[in-house]
Amino acid sequence: MEPNVTDATHLRHYRADDVNDPFRQMLIAIHAEVYADVMDDEFNQRFPWFVNHWSSMEGFSCVVAYDGQEPIGFIYGAPLSAGREWWREHIVPAPEDSSTFAVSELMVRPAWQKQGHSTRLHDELVADRPEALAVLLVDTEHPKVQALYESWGYAKVGDRRPFADSPLYAVMVRELS
């Protein structure tokens, strides 16, 4: 099925060098809108730290969707360091080529959800990646989101709680070639 994306929407790529305070604030504002009903949770309040952490990683890549000049969603991630791939404990033995791109965040503002923007953002981010694998975490309390990732070729390989106060996440991996 073709995404229901208007002709007015377009995508822009950003790298670590493009991340400045207005850009960070745009990501943070979208996160606050998407998670408005759970922003009292301390884990969600730490999102600015995650933006700073990921955007400082070598190879950071972000794609933002715009409707005209209005940012409507984003996705970002970065390559994981060799030997530090956090999915390794779930796949034994590890694939021969275990180079990994980690998809960290994918968010679309509520007014633009269920229109194909998530698929378009994801596909754009992982297109032409040199890594062999993509990995991401999805809250186990959101089976519809997990099913969406499965429709994109990801498979659940285990569960992980990366922080003491974080949700339990499904670890999902897919080949990129």
UniProtKB/TrEMBL annotation:
PROSITE patterns: GNAT (PS51186)
GO molecular-function terms, A-Z: acyltransferase activity, transferring groups other than amino-acyl groups
UniProtKB keywords: Acyltransferase, Transferase
Domain N-acetyltransferase: 21-175
SUPFAM superfamilies named in the record: Acyl-CoA N-acyltransferases (Nat)
Enzyme Commission identifier(s): 2.3.1.-
Superkingdom of the source species: Bacteria
Pfam families: Acetyltransf_7 (PF13508)
Protein name: Putative acetyltransferase
Biological source species: Kitasatospora setae (strain ATCC 33774 / DSM 43861 / JCM 3304 / KCC A-0304 / NBRC 14216 / KM-6054)
